[in-house]
Specification:
By secondary structure, this protein is an alpha+beta fold. It contains 4 helices and 7 strands. Strands 4-5-6-7 form a 4-stranded antiparallel beta sheet, covered by helices on one side.
Length: about 120
């Protein structure tokens, strides 16, 4: 199996560092954990997190732009849910799949591992 070239490795590390910066905020982690229990609108998140609407909307925007959550509109309301790249594993750990790694965040542990190759892909 060939080694990654320096630019690919650098790109992977930058993506990982960006993800860690995004997840370093307690409010964003609480939003992800809340959405792991099901779809929510901004009002219900504000009530649950006891935070003002502008604060929650700001963090939702950052999570959405970085593809950790998705949204759908129903009339005037916007509902948020975890993106398909984020799942709830074992009932209490978030698992985030990225291009070249998988990050698992549990109550007391964080695990980083290379992403599993897809069966239909041939690895040289």
């Amino acid at each position: 199996m060939p080694l990654l070239d320096a630019s690919a490795l650098d790109q992977d590390l930058e993506q990982l560092a960006s993800l860690f910066r995004l997840l370093s905020d307690k409010t964003r982690l609480n939003i992800l954990l809340s959405l792991a229990r099901g779809e929510r609108n901004v009002s219900s998140l504000c009530k649950e997190l006891e935070l003002p609407q502008p604060t929650v909307s700001h963090h939702l925007g950052l999570l959405r732009v970085n593809n950790l959550i998705s949204n759908r509109r129903k009339g005037k309301q916007v509902f948020y849910a975890l993106h398909t790249s984020v799942t709830l594993a074992d009932g209490n750990a978030l698992e985030i799949e990225a291009a070249s790694f998988s990050l698992r965040i549990g109550r007391r542990t964080v695990t980083l591992r290379p992403a599993q190759p897809h069966p239909e892909r041939i690895v040289p």
